[in-house]
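Lab notebook, page 48
Experiment: co-folding of the full assembly
Goal: obtain a model of how the components sit together before planning crosslinking
Operator: M.T.
Materials (sequences as entered):
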Amino acid sequence: MTWRKHDYDEIPGTYVFDGKTAHGAYGLNKLLFSFNSEANRAEFARDKAAYADKYGLTPEQKKALLEDDFLKLLRLGANIYYLAKLAVPRGFSVQDAGAAFQGVTTEEFKAALMEKGRGLVEKLERRGGYWNG
Amino acid sequence: MARIVGGVTTSHIPAIGNAMTAKLEGTPYWKRFFDGYEPVKAWLAEVAPDVAVVVYNDHGLNFFLNNMPTFALGCADRYDNADEGWGLKTLASFEGDAEFSWHIAESLVEQQIDIATCQEMLVDHGFVVPMALMWRHLPKWPVRTIPLAVNTVQHPIPTARRCYALGKALRKAIESYPEDAKVVIFGTGGMSHQLQGERAGLINVDYDLKTIDSVIDDPEWLASQTTAEIIENAGTEGVEIIMWLVMRGALDERVNVVHKHYHTPISNTGAGVLVLENAHA
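Observation: model returned without errors.
Model output:
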């Protein structure tokens, strides 16, 4: 039994959600997917540990879930879109999550994003054909 | 006969949905992004399509990992939006065109593209945000819709080349439908972004602009890339860009650019917009 290797395995800081990643985290992702329902989000809020047990999380997954350790959850196989169903309703933005992944503040993370847009209009003008108001 | 009036590409970032709900379009962060959609709205009002085929990926509202179709086509009379746990306002339901959908499904399968069919399909922000971007100013959605979901969530996802081939087959499917209907195709998602891992926050403006050039004049450039190459350049979630090739494949080899717009950052993402018409039209 061997998991196939991929070119994307070598990209740093990147956890591609493939069969290998998803296989060991089916229960974890099923728990996260359940947060499409407000009733489930409320049940989780009442007793997080019991909710984790209901979905058969491993002790490691359960610990990361209870600690809101997003990077750990990702490394344990959480899908990022499903992870957002845990984070966003409880007040974490995708920028908060990104900052947590990198170990920087949300302000630093947002500033780095804004930096990506610096000089954009001039760049688009040089390329030509872009709408510009 | 049904005919394709053109193709539109757009990002479908959830933050755009929240910004529209909160009516932030005129604020400094959002203004340039939203203003760039006014020409798209004007074009849509002019060509007045009857049907929109919306190519998007479900982010975990309708599909879970128990059953993850590579390509799935909505074949229903109606599609509902619902709570997807991201705090987005649930929007009004969308009218379908079941006869047209089933025709497309049959034609695709005849062309060796074995697509999954869905008689019930919740549509998430990937579908809803583009619809709202184009038509929220109207009292009701002005088109019938055909959702075409592409798996970009759990790998293996389809290759860029396969998405391009799907677009070519989709064109044959649409153009062989006997009813007179004007069809617009939305290729949604992207552009570059990575939400996850230590590489989160990736936005690759140069790659995005190269991709826009490619989608217009040289789809082969993007179609020939591997999934790993696209992830490396556009990020794990930026891989959604392959869905633009479904739209592009449904158009002529040569196209006219009606509108071209790019803005970044929108949330964590590079946001690109294209309106393309067939050159012979």
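Interpretation: Chain B touches chain A through 51 residues (CB under 8 Å).
Next step: discuss with group before ordering constructs.
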